[in-house]
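<given_protein>
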Amino acid sequence: MTEKIRVSLPDGSAREFSAGTTVLEVAEAIGPRLARDTIAGMVDGQLVDLRTPIRCDTDLRIVTAKDPEAGDVIRHSAEHVLADAVKRLWPGTPIDAGRRDHSEKYQYDFRFPRPFRPEDFERIEEEMARIISEGLEFERREADRDEVRRVMTERGEDIKLIRLEDIPEDDTITLYSHGPFLDLCRGPHVQRTSQIGAVRLLEASGAYFKGDERNEMLQRIYGTAFASKKELEAYFARLEELKRRDHRRLGRELDLFSFHTEAPASPFFHPRGTIVYNALIELMREKYRAYGYDEVITPQIFDVELWKRSGHYDNYRDDMFFADAFDEVEERSASIKPMNCPSHCLLYGGRAHSYRELPLRIADFGRLHRYERSGVVTGLTRVRTFSQDDAHIFCTPEQIEAEMTALFDFVFEIYDLFDFSDVRVYLSTRPEKAMGDPKVWEHAEAVLARCLDDRQDLNYTVKPGEGAFYGPKIDFDIHDALGRSWQLATIQLDFQMPERFDLTYVDSDGSEKRPVMIHRAILGSLERFYAVMLEHFGGNLPPWLAPEQARVLPVTDEVNDYAEGVASGLRACGLRVEVDRRSEKLGYKIRDGETQKVPYLLVVGQREAENDTVSLRLRHRRDEGVKSVDEVADRITHAVNTRSLEL
């Protein structure tokens, strides 16, 4: 008797099928149109090929072109069409492999006698269009090693024979084909090539086989694909917007920061950029006063024994800078701090504490240094020197939930100021390399989960095995104006470090007990937050953050003195104001102010000078008309003092 399985569908219904029924066969049972549109399946939350047999009870969602997961499958399938096109145009060209991540691109590496040229791209795209229009069915079949070895040898695919050896012995080996093209691949792929709506090749480059410069150089082609031409065009429009908002570009154009080879991956903040940086710090200092934090300053260099004691040396030493490379016995003896937590443990442990003093909240803007590899550093988002809005809370176990509630309020209060409305929350649990007793971890994870469950307005996702080595954590991911996700705030619950540093407090019954240590950052790395914020606003920073909040534009030299007087009055209100005294036409001055993204442009001519007024222009808008100087001053100071996003 054939074994039966239960397939639960998104609408709450369930159907019974024979074990081994494929995703596509389930779609066919539901309806012919759904079957025609099926691209893949989500089986128990995992993206799988539509030809995948289902062997046990499962939750299934059919993926069509309308679903966000479809893009990965479409691009993976276009990857095979690219390889097919190259082999049709240049028969006998050996192929290597595509890429694992198809979230935006696909790629293939080829053994080709020369770099690919732009005119090659035109021919390849035309050939890809022909293959797509043929509507060729993708076929999946499992094969053993001997069969794959024979097939690839017959086809002259010697690179594939090397790749075959990389597949673990117990893995299922699958071959995918469409028409005459066949490749060794895990999938998933679409039903037929015609489901790949639109393709475009992006660039070509050389690439060493397996990324090892000791191996041969192959030729790589990158491309992208979508279900429709409209989606493809929207993607490239988004890329242009990304270029326009790129914080590295804005940093140059707005004179905010720069990088120099003499200090790799270490930003230089210019005067204008430093104003923005300090405004972020002052924001946090203001909130620290409201939420009861004490700010401290701790050293930059510590004896390496501190990091051995904290556990960072064993878990983090490859990412640390050392102040003196080796001493006479070839032992590292001092390091530059990559984080503040051990130094805060020293501060706490410097004297006795009573339960009446707790919670003790210690904040630190100290500069940190981490050795990021040259291949991963990118602008301000990945640097080697940075500061954090870092803080550690030492509290009793009974105080954890109240502290967590306050921290949640703190996080959302800050993110509201930057219009980060779409915030995702994640709970990360015990990693493979974890310090301490697993039972302590289970307790800590249960405490964080309970705190999240008690917050009715929070939905969260569990990330198994992604906690810090000393404790579970809660991460907050924001989505910027372009819908990109960034992990910013983190809250980590730590029972390990108080144990390692023998931290105690005297409880109400006179006994000594261990405090709990909560690690938290809300902005995270100030440098990284700076980049995210700059791109989120497209450089159009709200008035309270703008390095130059207003600029006075005299129409002629005759009113320069009046312009200086207007600027002085605004500066007396605490505003950052400049006067453009250049002998340029007014239109040029306005355009320059717009380019520099100054929120308020104040035009003054003879009439304004006589009436103690200005002609107000708001950034990227038309003239607001003539206003009194006092009215403009009140408007700007209100926007600044309330940290408004509006001008």
Q: What stands out?
A: The chain has four domains: 4-63, 70-241, 258-536, 550-641. Residues 258-536 form a domain with the BirA Bifunctional Protein; domain 2 fold (CATH 3.30.930.10). The chain has a mean pLDDT of 93.
